[in-house]
Amino acid sequence: MSTRRDFLKLSLGAAAAALPALRVSGALAAPAPRVLRIGNQKGALSLLKGRGSLEKRLAPLGVGVTWTEFNAGPVQLEALNVGSIDFGDVGDAPPIFAQAAGAPLAYVAATLPRPQSEAVIVPRNSALRDVADLKGKRVAFNKGSNVHFFLVQLLRKHGLDYGDIHPVFLAPADARAAFENGSIDAWVIWDPFFAAAQATLGARVLADASGVDGNRGFYFSSQNYVRQNPDVIRIVIDEIVKTDAWGKAHRADYAAELAKLWGLPAPIVQRAVDRNEFGTVTVTKPILGEQQKIADTFLELGLVPKRVDVLQAAAPGLA
Hints:
Layout: H1 2-18, E1 22-24, E2 27-29, E3 34-40, H2 44-51, H3 53-58, E4 63-69, H4 73-81, E5 87-90, H5 94-100, E6 105-111, E7 118-122, E8 138-141, H6 146-157, E9 166-169, H7 172-181, E10 186-190, H8 193-201, E11 204-208, E12 218-222, H9 223-228, H10 230-249, H11 251-262, H12 266-274, E13 280-281, H13 285-300
Parallel strand pairs: 3-4, 3-5, 8-9, 8-10
Antiparallel strand pairs: 1-2, 5-12, 6-12, 6-13, 7-10, 7-11
């Protein structure tokens, strides 16, 4: 009997899913159209937006796509938390703060490590020559962004504590202005802002993340969106994988296309692309373990109010 009941449940479920419309007060009401609201930074998603290839893939499913650009991950994840976006790209640290704030985060894919794409930079004529020289100095970075954890780990590697510096929390545009006018001593930043500072301000690299932080990027959604739209998520990731593969084989063309989309000089974008590691991978338990290390470090420093269990952000059916 249980087998027959299970079969009936499956049959009824399939029939309900196949219904093209709902009957409301004796009339047929069209099903609500599906939409994918993407929040993107300056990265691979910019190419998908510029090309319109994702819209073409999703059109047969009746899924519309909207785009909103953000300058950093924390505000992007705030948008997820309040239900303004469904998908986005982010660095390794922002998801920890988002989870701590109760965001319904789901990791759906990860990039390969990209340690050379973030760095601590100083003005060309700065007296600072080593990471240890940062003690007592004003160091600017975007609070809760990917460079936050990198800075903590870098300081520890060189015998300093997070409390040994004077953090100055600034978004990239404000940090650049502070860097130019000399109101900060160092800036911790990622590409393409990093490459732009090197090219236009003559910024000098004090240290990048090599041997300190993997600097993975992540693609995220919400738990509910993944449960309700696994087909959409799979298509988005497939398009990202294709873009990565093309970019790895055609770095100059990739950089030129991004330069047009970002409105930045081609040499700046080329510099960022040259040190980028292309590749999108499935989020595994070891990768989530890397994230757990970040979460535990932030708890230890009092940067998050409670322990974050990263495994709870594994995407349902995709992890």
